[in-house]
Specification:
- The protein is mainly α and 425 residues long.
- The chain has one domain: Na+/H+ antiporter like fold, CATH 1.20.1530.
- Helix content is 71%, strand content 0%.
- The longest helix is centred in the middle third of the chain and has 32 residues.
- It is globular, with a radius of gyration of 21 Å.
- 48% of the residues are buried.
């Protein structure tokens, strides 16, 4: 393929990515399914692109996608609107992640004959829901604020948790520590999370102050993205979680006024709409090419692995239902919406990124991951889309009447006035 052909292909892929996103917003049909299908078409089917040529860059592509996706989730999230549901969201994250890991790890251990740590790694890779899929789906329907807030916050919080756990497990396996105790792994996980949290908070508060000095600079959003990459590098270098730090950094910037009020700071700033739009565009670019790249490497050579992925997905629905019931104890609103809450289990970007890291690491059983995980992603996304059609209202949120209805879309315009806090960008 010539250089000119590459430019033409990139243009076509971006236009299709835009159309897929537009279709998602209008019809609820998940855009990542279109992107995966597109990658599969130009790769394994038409053979326009050879995935072997991209293999050496798979870990770089996955890591870049991971940082951008997590930071974008943080900077667009208005945490103050869902603070009241945080306790139940944490409960759902705890039960949801734990039950999901166990639901996949048990069959891998007892039926596949994998080692325990390898089985837990597979369960962890698909252990969290996707905010990039769940939140836009929820934003299209009328729904109780409690339900919307619960699902929205859960999907934002569980991705970093499962990413940290998966990476620690992967590092242990690569280092030949398959016999390491789970307690040791647990200590390592907690350490990485705490380091990521602390550095992310410090860096976020410091950069809020810096933004008050750069508020007239045209390219402060680009510098902010550069800081995100440097922060990820620095935290990972001290064996902390760069993912957690990127999320916390984004949350603080996206909620700068509220954070400053809480800490009683005199000067503050927060992410402007220009900065939010810039990060959203970078996110769109990365997401489009990442899921097309995943479609390129889909083989589905072993139908049994695909069947296993579908079966795992159905088991995940069952254990999520149990997690939802436990989370809904004492709350009639959540209990009455248990069907919707259960079907919002779509796996997406986190699982896709992690499976690439597993393959790049070359561990035992790594060859089984792509077919299993991709079939789980596709199946759970379809289940979530069907859940919206079955349990959601016919009217979309934007067509709601004057009665105030909360939507789960975090990318709403920040309506905080300048009078609420001085020196806001």
């Amino acid at each position: 393929m010539s250089v000119i052909d590459v430019f033409g292909l990139i243009g076509i892929l971006l236009i299709i990515g835009f159309l897929a996103d537009f279709l998602f917003k209008k019809t609820h049909f998940p855009d990542i399914l279109i992107l995966l299908a597109l990658g599969f078409l130009i790769g394994p089917v038409l053979k326009w692109v050879d995935p072997a040529q991209l293999a050496p860059y798979s870990q770089l592509i996955a890591s870049l996608a991971l940082v951008v996706i997590i930071f974008n989730a943080g900077i667009e999230y208005e945490f103050a609107k869902v603070w009241s549901c945080a306790p139940r969201s944490l409960i759902l994250v705890l039960f949801g992640v734990a039950f999901s890991i166990a639901a996949v790890a048990a069959p891998a251990y007892f039926l596949f004959g994998w080692k325990l740590i390898d089985s837990i790694l597979l369960g962890t890779v698909v252990g969290g829901t996707s905010s990039a899929i769940v939140i836009p789906l929820m934003s299209r329907i009328r729904v109780s604020e409690q339900v919307s807030s619960l699902i929205s916050l859960e999907s934002v919080l569980n991705s970093p948790v499962i990413i940290v756990i998966a990476l620690v497990l992967l590092e242990s396996i690569v280092a030949g520590e398959a016999g390491v105790s789970l307690s040791t792994v647990g200590v390592d996980i907690v350490t990485q999370i705490l380091l990521g949290l602390s550095v992310g908070v410090i860096a976020g508060l410091f950069w809020l102050w810096i933004l008050t000095l750069l508020q007239k600079e045209e390219y402060n959003d680009i510098v902010t993205l550069a800081v995100v990459f440097l922060l990820y590098f620095a935290v990972e270098s001290i064996n902390g979680s760069g993912v957690i730090s990127a999320l916390v950094f984004g949350l603080i910037l996206g909620n700068g006024v509220g954070v400053s009020k809480l800490l009683k700071l005199k000067r503050t700033a927060e992410a402007t709409q220009i900065m939010r739009k810039f990060t959203a565009q970078i996110y769109f670019f990365i997401k489009t090419f990442f899921f097309i790249y995943l479609g390129l490497i889909i083989s589905f050579d072993d139908p049994m692995l695909v069947v296993a992925g579908v079966v795992f997905s159905l088991i995940l629905v069952l254990v999520r239902y149990i997690a939802v019931l436990l989370t809904s104890i004492g709350n009639p609103t959540l209990f009455s919406n248990r069907g919707l809450l259960t079907t919002m289990l779509a796996r997406g970007e986190s699982a896709a990124v992690l499976v690439q890291m597993v393959v790049a690491a070359g561990i035992i059983n790594a060859a089984f991951y792509p077919d299993i995980v991709m079939s789980i992603i596709i199946t759970t996304v379809i289940i979530s889309a069907l859940g919206i059609l079955i349990y959601g209202k016919d009217e979309v949120a934007e067509e709601a009447d004057s009665e105030p209805t909360y939507t789960a879309n975090p990318a709403q315009e920040n309506n905080v006035t300048s009078g609420q806090m001085p020196n806001k960008i």
